[in-house]
Design a protein that fits this description.
alpha/beta, 13 helices, about 40% helix
């Protein structure tokens, strides 16, 4: 078995220098690091993970909290899946592996993290009934990053949801709409997106003196069926509705289903704006917002590595969402009422 001492002898560097190069540590020049890595590859060096852990006091494992009890889309989720994929690429390039943390066997996320001796945790999407689980994460010095929910004391990299909500409302107003609704996903104590997008939406309409509480409707779930029911309640209560902004594209699909079933045309009768830019949104022609998954993941991975290295990180970083204009919004000159 090839050891660091063999590599040291072959390169002329000391064993500690070789160790730093192989473990990605120390302030070595890139030339030195590459020379050592090339020789290690040439000699067929295979790292001893157990020895590495004992030497560095690290497990080189990053815990991932990824559950989807709301939309039930798993790894096909339009936001969380690409964030996880990109985050994994960045973390693995830095010499770490990821491991999923779960709440099975009567374990909390935190107890599972301790059991696995992880070096850090990224909270991509937790179960919707677990807000108390994160109190321990807040109190610990364990490096942690959140990419969906805002927790006090945990570095968060998240979409600028209020900005998106504001721009959605303003976009509709500039297209002549005055009776504009908002359908919110459930407010569950975990995801902050529904409230934040509504806050921006409401702020814009208030600036134009158009906000009315009766245009707000809460969906009981993140699924299309729940959204269709919510839209039905809204359109029956406000027959003068001409446009609606929804928390995400899945809820927008529910609006489409209700509209089709009841002979309501989009955008001729109702204009719709979503959020997420799912694949199906392009085929429907849905105007929506695209979240910067690459930027979120890149920053999140850097924040994780910075914390592992003992650096201070900001409490929250927000990434702008970009509106994707299609054909679900029309410019109106008058109002259409539903009987």
């Amino acid at each position: 078995m090839v050891t660091i001492y063999d590599i040291a002898e072959a390169t002329g560097y000391s064993a500690p220098t070789v160790s730093k190069a192989l473990n990605g540590q120390g302030s070595l020049s890139e030339e030195t690091r590459q020379k050592i890595m090339a020789k290690a590859k040439e000699l067929g060096y295979e790292p001893n993970i157990t020895a590495r852990t004992l030497t560095t006091k690290r497990s080189y494992l990053i815990g991932v909290i990824y559950d989807d009890t709301g939309m039930n889309m798993g790894f096909s989720h339009p936001l969380f899946s690409p964030v996880l994929t990109r985050f994994r690429e960045k973390i693995e390039a830095a010499g770490y592996d990821i491991i999923f943390l779960s709440r099975h066997f009567d374990m909390t996320y935190f107890s599972h993290a301790n059991f696995r001796s992880i070096d850090g945790v990224i909270i991509i999407n937790p179960a919707t009934n677990t807000p108390a689980d994160f109190e321990d994460f807040v109190r610990t010095n364990l490096p942690r990053v959140s990419t969906n929910s805002v927790f006090d004391g945990i570095c968060t990299v998240i979409t600028a949801n209020e900005q998106g909500g504001y721009e959605a409302a303003e976009y509709l107003v500039k297209h002549g709409h005055k009776k504009i609704g908002y359908i919110s996903a459930p407010v569950d104590g975990i995801s902050t997106a529904p409230d934040e997008r509504f806050t921006g939406f409401k702020s814009a309409l208030e600036n134009y003196h158009l906000y009315d509480d009766s245009f707000y409707e809460l969906s009981s779930g993140w699924d299309k069926e729940s959204a269709a029911e919510a839209f039905g309640r809204l359109i029956k209560r406000r027959k003068d509705l001409t446009a609606v902004f929804v928390t995400n594209d899945q809820l927008a699909f529910g609006v489409y289903e209700y509209a089709k079933k009841h002979g309501i045309r989009i955008p001729e009768d109702i204009s719709v704006i979503g959020f997420d830019d799912e694949i199906a949104s392009e085929y429907l022609g849905l105007t929506t917002f695209r979240q910067s998954t690459t930027e979120i993941a890149d920053i999140a991975s850097q924040m994780m590595l910075d914390q592992i290295d003992g650096k201070q990180v900001p409490p929250i970083i927000r990434c702008r969402a970009e509106i994707v204009e299609r054909n679900s919004v029309k410019t109106i000159k008058g109002l259409r009422f539903f009987g």
